[in-house]
Design brief:
With 415 residues, this protein is α+β, with helices and mostly antiparallel strands. It is built from ten helices and eleven strands.
Length: 415
């Protein structure tokens, strides 16, 4: 079987569904199984983005979240109404560099948002991987590209900032003159105030956090409005009674926890992903939230919810019964995580591990270092108890389960 013959859109299409994908694709594989697609090259741009469709590539004026929403609404409205449909609305936001839409630029202007208690984490008990990453808000964000300080003065431009400035100019120059004026006005006073204060040390780090988290949440605010528009449209069109809506993500960001702005590490909250579901009428709305649900469980769940058969080759299990608060006796009690991408952006070391409802065991294998966390006693994951005498049985049990999962998944033993 060819690699894409049995993917989710192909299976739905074979079952008579219309299928569409709008927005971020970010895969090298060609899209298969979609009646319609309009995708962003790579991660796409926030303003005046390019799009790829079956027979053309073109640029569209406006803010990417708004454009994607309009494309989805138009497709639903103009679809073949005699058939069921499967639509993926894949937003670009809130990927770096967190450029808010014009209506959201002034949100949170006169308030300080809460700072995570681990923002100034010293990584004291952990493997050196936590110290050697390159995603600290205080040290690795770009003043221009990430934090919207523009223009930079000569004394602010070092080798690090030259890279950021080139990226910023690429993004900023996509804006029209009118859009640039809106952006300049939105950030001008705060940027002047920042330079007047000449912040250093902890105060500078906290200023960077506030600028970062506000821009991030401003991007999220536009997505919230987009989701609201889509849900309202389904209500208006009379589709809510037989349409399942799932809000999910590929992973979460640290959002300042441990001082970081990205993801990749196996720590919370990066390892988690949001999952919200709006049921059609008539489906019982009870959820047993104690089960560990994975990304690979989404496709089987969609197929079962649609009344379609599950292929034997598909990874994951349907969590339909969990959504209806039915106890599933053979559900997974642990799962495996593996991060391979090193050396690469953010310099997070290779690692793999296992997570249960209470514990997490991580192995940074090229530097051969282990970490163990008791999430019940240490939800912030600042105390590595791998060598603590009280946790040796836990460590041994987790190691056995980790090896079982690696064997089951066919992970190379030398890693």
């Amino acid at each position: 079987m060819k690699s894409q013959e049995g993917t989710l859109p192909v299976l739905f299409k074979k079952a008579g569904y219309q299928t569409a994908l709008v927005g971020k694709w970010h895969l090298k594989a060609t899209l298969v199984g979609f009646d319609y697609f309009s995708i962003l090259p790579d991660q796409g741009h926030y303003y005046n983005p390019d799009f790829i469709e079956k027979d053309r590539k073109y640029q569209e004026h406006g803010y990417v979240t708004d454009i994607l929403t309009e494309k989805c609404l138009a497709w639903i409205k103009n679809r073949d109404k005699s058939k069921p449909f499967l639509l993926f609305c894949n937003h670009k936001a809130p990927n770096r560099n967190w450029m808010p839409g014009p209506e959201a630029l002034r949100l949170f202007r006169n308030e300080d948002l809460p700072v995570p208690e681990t923002f100034f984490d010293d990584y004291r008990t952990r493997c050196e991987a936590a110290k050697l990453q390159e995603m600290r808000i205080a040290d690795h964000t770009y003043l221009s590209y990430d934090l919207k300080l523009f223009p930079l003065s000569e004394e602010e431009i070092n080798e690090h900032e030259k890279t950021g400035l080139a990226r910023w100019n690429s993004a900023y120059n996509r804006l029209t003159n009118e859009q640039k004026k809106t952006w300049d006005e939105a950030y001008r006073d705060e940027n002047k105030d920042f330079r007047r204060k000449k912040l250093e040390g902890r105060e500078l780090a906290l200023w960077k956090y506030q600028r970062y988290i506000k821009d991030y949440l401003r991007c999220i605010a536009s997505i919230d409005l987009s989701i609201g528009r889509l849900l309202d449209f389904l209500d208006k069109e009379g589709l809510s009674n037989d349409t399942l809506v799932i809000y999910a993500s590929d992973q979460s960001f640290f959002l300042g926890k441990h001082g970081w702005f990205d993801k990749r590490f196996m720590y919370e909250p990066s390892i988690r992903f949001p999952l919200l579901i709006r049921y059609p009428d008539g489906v019982e709305r009870k959820v047993d939230s104690e089960h560990l649900v994975l990304h690979v469980d989404l496709a089987p769940t969609l197929l079962v919810m649609a009344g379609l058969p599950l292929p034997a080759y598909m990874q994951g299990k349907s969590f339909k019964d969990i959504l209806q608060a039915k106890r599933v006796s053979d559900w997974q009690e642990s799962f495996y995580y593996h991060y391979y991408e090193y050396p690469a952006v953010h310099s997070v070391k290779h690692h793999y591990g296992i997570r249960t409802s209470r514990y997490k065991l991580i192995h940074f294998y090229y530097i051969y270092c282990w970490e163990l966390y008791d999430l019940e006693a240490d939800s912030q994951e600042v105390n590595n108890v791998y060598y603590h005498p009280n946790y040796q049985k836990v460590k041994d049990d987790l190691t056995k389960e980790l090896n079982r999962l690696r064997t089951e998944l066919g992970v190379k033993p030398e890693i």
